[in-house]
Amino acid sequence: MKVLITGNLGYVGPVVVRYLRRTHPNARLIGFDSAFFALSTTAATVLPERFLDEQHFGDVREIPESLLEGLDAVIHLAAVSNDPIGNKFERVTEEVNYRASVELGRKARKAAFPILFSHRAAAYTVSLQAPRGRSRTRSIRRPPMLAPR
How far is CA 100 from CA 23, 58, 78, 129, in A? Predict the structure, then answer.
């Protein structure tokens, strides 16, 4: 099994990579990250990329096609997930969190491999209390790639 993990050096990535290595010791794990926070790993006793077979550095908006060849799956964790940064740099946040994710999804569909999209910046629904004690769910700014078709 050959798996690409984007955002593998971020908040969630190191935990996912360790889990994959432990549960699938023979898998070929490939990391792709900008490394903005690579030197800020918290509670790490070893460098997270130690559990990978390959580590590539770059911008998720420009993933090399060669990294997508022969994949069995992509776990897409790369995102701008810091609200102050996202607010200050809205265009870049949209490019990374939305446009790059949609493009990676298109490439995954074309190459027929599954993609798991999960990051902290995604918001799906919020529960509200309706009048007279009846509950309801209201959608809030649902990312278009996750909206039902």
Answer: 29, 13, 9, 35
DSSP state of 89: T
Count of domains forming the chain: 1
Note the pTM of the prediction, 2 decimals.
0.73
Q: Can you tell me the distance from the alpha carbon of 117 to that of 112, in angstroms, rounded to the nearest whole number? A: 15
Residue 147 belongs to some domain of the structure: no
Give the CA diameter of the chain.
Answer: 57
Q: Give the structural domain span for 57.
A: 2-124
Domain annotation covers residue 109: yes
The CATH number given to whatever domain includes residue 73 is: 3.40.50.720
Residue 57 counted as domain residue? yes
- In this structure, the number of other CB atoms found within 10 A of the CB of residue 122 comes to 15
129 assigned to some structural domain:
no
Give CA–CA dist 60/34, Å, rounded: 7
Cα distances from 85 to residues 64, 76, 92, in angstroms, run 26, 20, 10
54-92, pLDDT tens digit by residue? 999 999 999 999 999 999 999 999 888 766 776 787 888
- What's the mean per-residue pLDDT of the chain? 77
